Every structure is written in C-alpha cells, then in structure tokens.
Amino acid sequence: MKKPDQTGFATIEAVLIIVVVAILGYTGWFVWHAKQNTDKTLSNTANSQPALQKAAKKGESEAVKSSQKYLEIKEWKVKFPYEGEDTLSYKFRDSEQKYAAVISKTLVDKYHSCDDIGVGVIARNLPSDAYYEGTIEDAVQKNPSLFTKLGDYYFSFSHNQASCITNPSAQSAIDESTADAFIKAIVPKVVAE
User: Fold this and answer.
1) Which of 139, 148, 26, 14 is nearest to 80 (CA)?
2) What pTM was computed for the model?
3) CA angle (52, 181, 160) in 5-degree steps
4) Contact indicator for 157, 151 with CB cutoff of 8 Å
C-alpha cells in the first residue's frame, strides 16, 4: 500500500505557524512600544512637576500670569484681578478719590452713557469713615464678606442702582455677570502693587 502524499499539508501548516508567530510578535512589539511611550510621557510629566511647584511657590505659573487681567488703580497702589475678554478702566467719582467707578469697554461701546456711570463702584475707606448710620468699621462688623482690608483701608464693591442703559434685560445681565463677579472675585483678591 502506498502512503498518501502529505507535503502540501506541511507547507500550509508551516505558513500558518509563521503567520501566528508574526501576529504574536507584532502584538508584543506594539504593547512594548506603547508602554515605552507611556513611560516617557509620565517621566516628562514627573520632571516638570518640580518646575510647576516652584512657579506656584513664587506666585503664579507663567500660563496663569499671561491670562490674568487686572484693573489697576495707580493712585491707590492696588490692583484687582478679573477674567474675561472685557477691558476694565476706572474714573474717580469724587475729589477725595475714595470712590472709583468701574468702566467696562464692552458696555461703553454698546451704551455710551455707561462711560460716566460705569457698572459699579469700588470704594476705599478708612475704618473711621462715615457709612450710613455708623462707620465703615461698624459695617465690616455686620457684613465682613462685603469688605477686604488691605493696609489701613477697607475695599468694597457695589453695582450701580441707576442703570447706565435703558434696556432692562441688558441691565439684568450686567447685574448678574459683572457686578456679581466683582463682589465674589475682585474685592476679596485686592492686592498691593
């Protein structure tokens, strides 16, 4: 009896083994390569952490410094941080320079009457200055969250009750966004120059 010729089957078997080994080899290489890239990324991140921590110890990182805006009142030697696209300026409302009206360029461009009134007023008072039925110091005792002390002065912000614009819906948006942002963010963060 003659044995059947099985050489064709051995060739197919060899090709299948080579394909399986190639797939396993590629998968292994791919996993190893991905791990190497991850390790490099983690290593670079870990190496950059001390630099970020040093920047934080010095103050703010460069990225924060570049995006942070300030309303600087030179006569008082203070600045108030704020965020957003708007450009803020100020005008004093009195000869003693106790009250600075905050002027929004965006609002002035839309409503020219806002140039004189502004979106609100930053007040700078001594503790003994008169305030309604008492002094600033009395007001601070009653509502400490409305005031920030820097040096000998107390700073506060209040938005205008009189609208610089006639559109009530626009005034509502100003009250909610601009005034509340100042009350919550700017006054507690007043800093000396």
Assistant:
1) 148
2) 0.54
3) 150
4) no
181: closest CA among 173, 191, 192, 170?
Answer: 173
Mean of the per-residue pLDDT values of the chain: 75
Residue 177, both tokens? 């966004």
The string of pLDDT tens digits covering residues 136-153 is 999 889 888 888 888 889
Angle at 27 (CA atoms; ends 26, 29), nearest 5 degrees? 65
DSSP at 187: G
pLDDT digits (tens, 9 = 90+) for 114-123: 777 777 788 8
Helices (H), the chain: 7-58, 62-67, 105-110, 114-117, 136-142, 168-174, 180-181
The alpha carbon torsion through 64, 193, 142, 100 (nearest 10 deg) reads: -100
CB contact set of 101 (below 8 Å; sequence gap of 6+): 90, 91, 92, 93, 116, 117, 118, 120, 121
DSSP letters of 97-143? Answer: --EEEEEEHHHHHH-TTHHHH-SEEEEEE-TTSEETTEEHHHHHHH-
Give domain limits for the chain: 7-60, 68-192
